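Summary: Need help interpreting a holo structure output

Steps to reproduce:
1. Submit the protein chain below together with the SMILES for zinc ion.
2. Request a joint structure prediction with the ligand placed.
3. Inspect the structure token block that comes back.

Expected: a single structure record containing both the chain and the bound molecule.
Actual: see attached output.

Input attached:
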Amino acid sequence: MRRPVYCASHPPDPLMMSWRHWSTCKVCRRWPTAILCPACRQRWDQPILRCSHCADHAHATDPAGHACPLNPRHLWREAAARMDYATPCDQWIKRLKFGADWTQARDLARLLNECAPAQRLRAQADLILPMPISDTRLRERGYNQAALLARHWCGRDPRLHIDWLIKHRHTPAQAQADRAQRLQQLEGTLSWGTPTRLHKLRGARVLLVDDVMTTGATLDIASSVLLQTGVAQVDVVVFARTPSPLGAGPGGGLHSPHVSNRPGPP
Ligand SMILES: [Zn+2]
Ligand SMILES: [Zn+2]
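--- attached output ---
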């Protein structure tokens, strides 16, 4: 059975859903519902108009989201994000990355299915590559959360290759680093694996998948590596995007930047 695709502004009717899609609400734990109950969707999941290049809140100078004012631009072509990295989404991601709660990936993938720009980018891609983590991090965490998210989102799609991008050097946690520091730390840490894959990468439209985009430095490094091998274009899908001052600050965005400042969920 094909997974239904929902619009964020038109939540699914629970009565129309298969029992397999029923669950407790991820925020208030109400049962039964479709990941998020209507009240929590209303409070925490309002549709956000995003820039099609950086996936940040649409810029005031570009309300249609098609002419990102970033200069220099990122190396990828288009990016899509499902939610802001803010309450309650930040807790889900932390549980996935640091709480060994790998079941979060399934729920995030179901929410990602509701994101029309992400679905469009996936449909256009020739290859879907999740962002890699280092072996050190893999031993620590037990799984690559981006690969898990991509696997749940794409299922058995033959375009998905979870081991084509490799991170062959461990880098320290980057939570406090700015973009320049991240780029410096990550330089030379990613590669695309074995030469036998080269002919499949050349001319391909590649979609990178990750759980969170903060400054975009890691995704830029991956895009750079791929573009140097001759891929035709790189697009990006992330579950969560950290709103930047450029996109959502005073006078910058069209939407309130203060989602994360709202009182916490019950
Ligand atoms: Zn709820
Ligand atoms: Zn932008």
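--- end attachment ---

Reviewer comment: Residues 51, 53-54, 56, 59, 68, 70 surround zinc ion (ligand 2) (CB under 6 Å). Confidence is low (pLDDT under 50) at residues 1-11, 13-17, 248-266.
Status: needs-info
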